Amino acid sequence: MPRVLKGPVEVLGAGLLGTSIALALRKAGIEVWLSDINSEHVRTATSLGAGIPRPHHQRPQLVVVAVPPAHLAASIVEALDDGAYVTDVGSVKAGPLEEVADQVEDRALARYVGGHPMAGNERSGPLAASAALFEGRPWAITQHVHAEPIAVELVEELVDICGALPVRMTPVEHDHAVARTSHLPHVLSVLAAGQLTDAEPAHLVLSGQGVRDVTRVAAGDPELYGQILFANAPVVAEVLVEVRDQLDRAIEALTATNGEGNEVLEEILMRGNTGRGSLLGKHGSPAIESGSLFVVVPDGPGELARLLRDAGEIGVNIEDLHIEHDPARPVGLVELTIATAAIGRLGDALSERGWTTHR
Amino acid sequence: MPRVLKGPVEVLGAGLLGTSIALALRKAGIEVWLSDINSEHVRTATSLGAGIPRPHHQRPQLVVVAVPPAHLAASIVEALDDGAYVTDVGSVKAGPLEEVADQVEDRALARYVGGHPMAGNERSGPLAASAALFEGRPWAITQHVHAEPIAVELVEELVDICGALPVRMTPVEHDHAVARTSHLPHVLSVLAAGQLTDAEPAHLVLSGQGVRDVTRVAAGDPELYGQILFANAPVVAEVLVEVRDQLDRAIEALTATNGEGNEVLEEILMRGNTGRGSLLGKHGSPAIESGSLFVVVPDGPGELARLLRDAGEIGVNIEDLHIEHDPARPVGLVELTIATAAIGRLGDALSERGWTTHR
Lengths: 359, 359
Hints:
Two copies of one chain form a homodimer.
Chain A: E1 9-12, H1 16-27, E2 32-35, H2 39-47, E3 52-53, E4 62-65, H3 72-81, E5 85-88, H4 94-103, H5 106-109, E6 114-117, E7 138-142, H6 149-161, E8 165-168, H7 171-194, H8 209-215, H9 222-231, H10 233-255, H11 261-277, E9 290-298, H12 303-314, E10 320-325, E11 331-339, H13 340-352, E12 357-358
Parallel strand pairs in A: 1-2, 1-4, 2-3, 4-5, 7-8
Antiparallel strand pairs in A: 6-7, 9-11, 9-12, 10-11
């Protein structure tokens, strides 16, 4: 089927996301024009083969707006005024759409369909970009009721070219979804990490894998995350108030003297169990029962590879893997997540090959 | 140097921790007696080679108390009354010590030195036990001022036999440390996970690695964690109140209409950055600069092994590894954490071997 998306595509904002999209488009043979308030970014992205600087007085078929949240709406409006079809990769959808709708006519608004790829991380800038960044990642497509069918089709093809998985929802649904799946976890990770600044450095040696997992995303850029949280402020605040109620209940339970706190606290902990369970199961299929096998691995090039080569030869598929580093010795403990039914077999076979394992 | 710890050692509570300690002691040739309120546990642990059921009318040299937090103090008192040296593996130290001190004479208390190995996880029961469970893990030794030197020595040798790393601190220091490095992250993980129960199932498809990391420990046993949190209730409540203050500030910042919220929120996010940074660096050494390389890996036995064999041949040491599963396709994205200086070299060499990578 011939594509509707023929290009040229203008990528506005040659950071990590914009340059990665540009590289994927170039790989598909589509002409890409790059623009950025920072001309250094355009030069870098161009040198990576992500496209050419936007020529003056020409109009692209599609503009992909990939600028920080604070500048999103203004950039979308400008691109619509130029007469192109427009999408964006902003992490919040309802507020910017409203701002845009206030500033352009419905006829122009019809050429805009929002998007949000679930990719990117603590790194930034065009040097970190890759055509494979979106490979297999969900990409929300948040069309509004006035969108032209062709505008939707262009974004769907863009998602397809990037190798991502389209997920359709309304802008408001999207913002409620990411408030719980992204913004709230980020804030709580930050609060957990923040309390470590008050801990005696000598006490941090007791830190295990748990606190490392909980605080990982707290490493994200404060300025960028500040903008993201503000862009979804009403929804995030609502969810944070719900969490504060639960936190109040937990504090009350822990300070209760009548012995009734136990039940409340356990209910809160159970609720966490349930919520966590709703995340499990990969490939969108029902969760298969899996468990852990721990293996002691010396810390040197090739050791982890040797373990996984052995596991591969034994014929067991690794669902997940975590390396827990010994804080003081050159040895790591590797947690392999595998189908429960295969744990015994893998453990025995690895032991036979000389590995120290435990379940 | 001849050991002071000659046995027999009674392990009271043949669950995951108790049975693992018993197995490590047996491996070191020390006689182990097992007891548990659940005779099934003793049978299982015995069949694993962890020791023999405790003989009547004989006294062990050392009793290791490995029972749930709610029964800890009573079990320690009983063991001290029998005249043995006593340690425990409870996750909270000051409260139980106080309870014990209230019930025994100072002369008896001198034979008790508390301990807390940083191991164990969501699993439980003797079947999950292993002599290698504590290999390389920190193990807090929390002696009180009245402890006999020989009581301390016995616990130090136990830690050594288990292959763990002794970390000395007072019981009160310990409880403040774990409140921040373990109990608080657990509660916040549970609160983040709990909010997912209110999310539309269709929205959860937008869940990325971030929320998975933040909520992982929320899978822990609610009853056990309830007991742990209650055992450290005053300290945990204090830290939770501090977090509630920060949460209030975040909510206020997000709902501020005077534009002053931005600065407050960014300060909170910065504080999270700083706290997270204090956790980094493995082997207790200063953090070396490391970064990520992403590789697309088909989901089948041996594929991950092939990747790591290639990485091993290229000669790059993998610091950490995360598998991010595609929610809808049989493909995984693997994030390799390696020294920043080696990222370019590994990426190029893997690409040459046919892998799809990005930074």
